[in-house]
Amino acid sequence: MTTFKEIRGTAIEVLSSDPANPELGQIWYNSSSGTLKGYVLANVNAWSSGGTYPNSVEGNASVGTQTAALGFGGGDPAVFLTTTVKYDGTAWTPTGSMNTARAYLGGAGTQTAALAFGGYVQPLNTAASESFNGTSWTNTPNMNSARRALGSAGIQTAALAFGGYGTNFSTATETWNGTSWTTSPATLPTGIAGNGNAGTQTAALSFGGDVGPTTTTATNSFNGTSWTSVNSMNTTRGYLGGFGTQTSAIAAGGGPPTGGVTELWNGTSWTSNPTGMATNRQYLGANGSSTAGLAVAGNNGSTKINTVEEWTGQQLQTRTITVS
């Protein structure tokens, strides 16, 4: 019979404690606990509490990563914010405010190089666009169409805006090249607002949303030239959070009335996660990757909230190996 040493090239180590920096696939016997252990890539797929957001707010935008995020704007039909805050994985810190107070806006980029565009300033939608350099915001040329609750993807110098609500539910797509916005000939199959989003300017994903008067499970993929319908989500909803890439994305929250439902996209199909977020929410900010993301503030169905949840997808972990 083939031994572990013959397969791996080394025998199972006997250690008194778990190694501080194990390698992927490493297996050892912990003599103190009397357990066989290994270091593996595990599907955690769970939410945990993050640092409380400074404001109870909905319709806010968030970009960056789980440990280096930027949150900006938001509000409700009566109060709109220019507030901008940075997240270090533990706490939020105020930084330079936006020039245009607004909610239900689009966002792209990173904590130190972000773009804010579109949104709502009662009683009108706005086409305003501005960029953030890590310290302050600067106005940039406006989008070609004013709209709120739009999908967004990309980086500060190569962003994508799609869907949203202007004078009606929009199918429009616009691209940003770091200098100006251009209306793309590519249009979404259906006018939509409050759609979840993930990806880049040339490889984006739009999912769910409000198509008036109902919400949808529709998912559409963008290749830089055209939109293509792909497999739908399992749960219909709008005004949800989304993050990740075109081939590995997370759909989080939304409503009504799905609340904290979470689904995972693998590039082909959606899988419902057994557990959702601890706090039901829609109109939330979201950012990150399918392995490490953030859900920021939002509305729990009756009021604006300031809770933040952190998503952990696949993660390297030390696991006890059981034999039965």
Write up what this structure looks like:
The chain starts with a helix and ends with a strand. It has two domains: 47 residues, no CATH class; 270 residues, Neuraminidase (6 Propeller). The strands form seven sheets. It has a six-stranded mixed beta sheet, with no helix packed on it. Strand 16 and strand 17 form a beta hairpin. The protein has 324 residues and is mainly β.
- Count up the domains: 2
Shape, please?
A: globular
Strand runs, count: 28
What is CATH's topology name of the largest domain?
Neuraminidase
CATH superfamily descriptor of the largest domain: Kelch-type beta propeller
Over all CA atoms, what is the radius of gyration?
21 Å
Distance between the first and last residues' Cα: 19 Å
Number of helices: 1
Structural class: mainly beta
Beta-strand percentage range:
35-45%
CATH architecture of the largest domain: 6 Propeller
- Helix fraction, binned, reads under 10%
| H and E order | HEEEEEEEEEEEEEEEEEEEEEEEEEEEE
Which CATH class of the largest domain? Mainly Beta
pLDDT < 50 runs, ≥5 residues: none
Give the strand order, joined by hyphens, for the main sheet.
Answer: 1-2-3-28-27-26
What profile does the largest beta sheet have? 6 strands, mixed
Mean pLDDT: 94
